[in-house]
Amino acid sequence: MDLDLEEYDFPLSEDRIAKFPVEKRDHSKLLAVQRSKNLWTDFPFFYQIESLLRPGDILVYNETKVSPRRAYLTQPEKTRVHEVLFLEKRDNPERWLCLLKHRAKLKVNDVLRLLGAGDSLEFRLDSHEEEMVLLSPNRPITEEDFEAWGSMPIPPYLKRKAEPSDKERYQTVFAKHAGSVAAPTAGLHFTEELMSLLKSKGVTFLPVLLQVGYGTFRPLSETQIQAKTLHSEQYLLLREVADQLNQAKAEGRRVIAIGTTTLRVLASVYQPLSKTYAHGEGSTNIFIMPGDSVDCAEGLITNFHLPKSSLLLLVSAFAGKDLVLGAYRHALAHSYRFFSYGDAMFLH
Asked: Which residues contact 13 (CB under 8 A, 6 or more apart)?
């Protein structure tokens, strides 16, 4: 199938982008999209999703935790500040693949110091890799280090610096395993109270893990579209979770993915011939687009995504291009808030 990315474009004014979350997580708005009837329903509050869920439903969430990996570096004797985002560690010796601002002003072997860290942590600029750089620290970096001096890597389209409140609000209640540079944002709408309410109704929550990389923010390239592959991300599906998913599938109960990251895991491990999920861990670069069959889940909870993004293509594959784009037009006309801190959709 030929893909015309321009068909997934739409005008989005700056004021429709949610720069901050609503006061209470589950008080964002909810647009419920019923695939079988090609219709949608507005709900003032996300917690009203309870009325759409059934006893026996399985809600699958991503238990990744966002690492506060944004920091600020300076050169000795110089005043320019370089914002850095630590993406992933490469060992032997330890080096970090990073996004570094104002890197054109730097050269290989320049030394940068951590601003305001209160210790002697330094980094040597090792090399450039396209738009990325490799930084070598003078001592190992741990998650505890990031917690001590890093700030949350809130998305670039928020066009603001992270605030102390982001450390809590740009983290889901499911967060357990650190390593992501972006939140699985559909999970931001859930609270402990809402989870308790849904469990009392007979809804089961099950975890998967997908460590979200910076590629989720990068524009789609023609190469990715032609090769039908995206950036790679590490995932884990435990045997006991796969067993419960397989039992639910065999019994005809609904499997509902909380977020596109969760759906990527489920789609990566789903065996369509046997209609089962395979446990295990690995790396996935799966690219789901319109025309693909998405049988790994019966429901998807998600936010409103960027125009022409792989996430919008995934949602369109799940529910149908015309239905999804129609729902987006409705959301734009009815003051829904977009992107990470915005409102939610439940496609079922």
From this structure: none
Counts for the chain of helices (H) and strands (E), in that order: 8, 19
Cα 231 from Cα 224, distance rounded (Å): 9
Q: Are residues 204 and 39 in contact, defined by beta-carbon separation less than 8 angstroms? A: no
**How far, in Å, CA of 276 to CA of 282, rounded?**
18
- The string of pLDDT tens digits covering residues 193-236 is 999 999 999 999 999 999 998 776 677 778 888 888 887 899 99
Which residue is associated with the tokens 């859930």?
A: 190
| Other C-beta atoms lying within 10 Å of the C-beta of residue 20 | 13
pLDDT at residue number 119: 61
**Residues β-bridged to residue 84:** 71, 100
> Could you tell me the end-to-end alpha-carbon distance of the chain, in angstroms, rounded to an integer?
25
Of 206, 211, 346, 212, the residue nearest 277 (C-alpha): 206
Exposed, middle or buried, 21 (CB in 10 Å: 0-12/13-18/19+)? buried
Q: Where are the alpha helices (DSSP H) in the chain?
A: 143-149, 166-169, 192-200, 222-227, 239-250, 260-269, 310-319, 321-333
pLDDT single digits (tens) 241-288: 999 999 999 999 999 999 999 999 999 999 999 999 999 999 999 999
Rounded distance between C-alpha atoms, residue 177 and residue 20, angstroms: 24
Q: Is the peptide bond before 137 cis (omega within 30 degrees of 0)?
A: no
